[in-house]
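Quarterly update, task 2.4: 4AD-bound model.
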Amino acid sequence: MALKRTKIVDVFDPALVGQQVCVKGWVRSRRGNKFVQFVALNDGSTINNLQIVIDLEKFTEEELRPITTGASLHVEGQLVQSQGKGQTVEVQAQTIEIYGTADPEEYPLQKKGHTLEFLRSKAHLRMRTNTFGAIFRIRHHLAFAIHKFFNDKGFFYLNTPLITASDCEGAGDMFQVTTLDLSDLPKTEEGKTDYSKDFFGKSTSLTVSGQLEGELGATALGAIYTFGPTFRAENSNTPRHLAEFWMIEPEMAFYDITDNMDLAEEFIKYCVNYALEHCQEDIEFLNKMYDNTLIDRLHSVLKEPFVRLTYTEGIEILKQAKKKFEFPVDWGVDLQSEHERYLVEEHFKRPVILTDYPREIKAFYMKQNEDGKTVRAMDVLFPMIGEIIGGSEREADYDKLMSEIERRGIPMKDMWWYLDTRRFGTVPHSGFGLGFERLILFVTGMANIRDVIPFPRTPNNAEF
Ligand code: 4AD
Ligand code: MG
C-alpha cells in the first residue's frame, strides 16, 4: 500500500522518528560531496525546510542531476534524528521520484538573496521564497482571525456588491464597469454616453467601500461586517496604496463613536495578538531578516491603551512640533502620512485615535457635531503605517443627512435607498473600515504594500 504523504509542517514530530515517511515538495537548495548530498525540501506548509539525506551508494549522479533548486520531488525514506546542526530531524532517502525539473539556466529563483523589488517582477513565483511564504501564511491567519473575532462577538458576515452605482466615499476615483463598445459608444440626444444601453441600464463602477450596504445590514441584523475587495482608481503610487485592496467593514446599530473606538482598538489588538500566537516562526523569520524591531513593536501596541484626541488637538501638537514637514499643517488640512506618523512615532510613541475632523475633508455620511464645523470621524493611526482604520458615527438624522447630500451635489438617484435607513426606524449607528493590507504591513514589518498582497494592482501594473 502506498505510504500516505505527511506535510512537512507535521514531520518534525518527535513521535515520527524511526518511521517511514512520504514527503513531497520543492527543492530549495542542494549541497554535499561525492558521498552524500543534502536537499532542503519545502512544501509551503511551514517556513522550515526538511533535510533529505541522499547516500550516493544508493543513487547515481545521473539520477540526481535533475534535482536542482525549484524541482519538485516525492521522497520516501526513514525519518531519523539529525546528526547535523540546524535541524532536528531529517529523512534518509530510499526512493526519489522527480515530478518536475526546473532548468537552472531558466528558473528565476535559482539564486538566493533577490531583492523584494526583483521579486515583485516575478510575482507569479515569489510565493515560493521564504519571505513570501511567511507573509502569505500570516495573511491567511489574519483573515481567519478576523472572521473568528466577529463571529465570536455575534456579528454577521455580510457580502456587499462589488459592482455599484454609488460612490460611497465621494472621491470620484472609481473604475467604471461597462459592456458598451468603447470604440462605438451609444449617444443621447445631448451627445453624452447613453448608459441606458449599458448592461445594468445605468452607469456602474467597482465599489470603493461596502459601507452603505453594510448600514442596511446593520439596521436589520444589528451588527455586521464585510470582508472583501475594494477598488480605488486614485493615481497614488505610494508604498501604502493599492488600486485593489481588501477591507473589513464592521457596522453596528446602537453604537456611538466611543463604542466604535473601543471596538476598533479591541479588534486590532486581537489581530496582532493572534498573529503573535499563531505565526510565531514566520514572524521571527521576518524579524530576523528584515526588521529586528518588529516583534517589540507588535508587543508594544498590545501593552497600552491607544491615545484618543481630537483632530483640533492633533493640529495644535503638529503646529508646535520642532519638525519641518513637507506639507504645512493648519486647521482644515487633510493630514499626510508624515503628520500621522509624527503623532504616533515621535510625540505619543503609541497608536493614536484621532476624532472630530473638519467636515469638509470627510465623507457625507458622518454624524455632524454641534459646532457645525466638525464630524464624528475617527481614524486609527499606527506606527510605520499612518492611517490603518477610518470610520465614524453615522449621521442618523434624515434632514441633516439630506441637506449634506444636497450641499455636496450628490445625485439623489444614487442615494434614495440609503436614505431609507433614516426614514424607517433610524438608529444611532457607527462603523469603520480596516485596510487589510495595511494591517498585514504592520504585522509583517514589510515596507511596501505591494509585498503583502499576492498579486498587487497599482498604476501600470496588472501583469499577473
Ligand atoms: O478611510 P477609508 O476611505 O474609509 C472608508 O472607506 C469607509 N467607508 C470605512 C467605513 O467607515 N466603513 O478607508 C478605510 C481604510 C483606510 O483606513 C486604509 O487602511 C484602507 O482602508 N485604504 C487603503 N488601503 C490600501 N490601498 C488604498 N488605496 C486604500 N485606501 C484606503
Ligand atoms: Mg480614510
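Highlight for this quarter: The chain has a mean pLDDT of 96.
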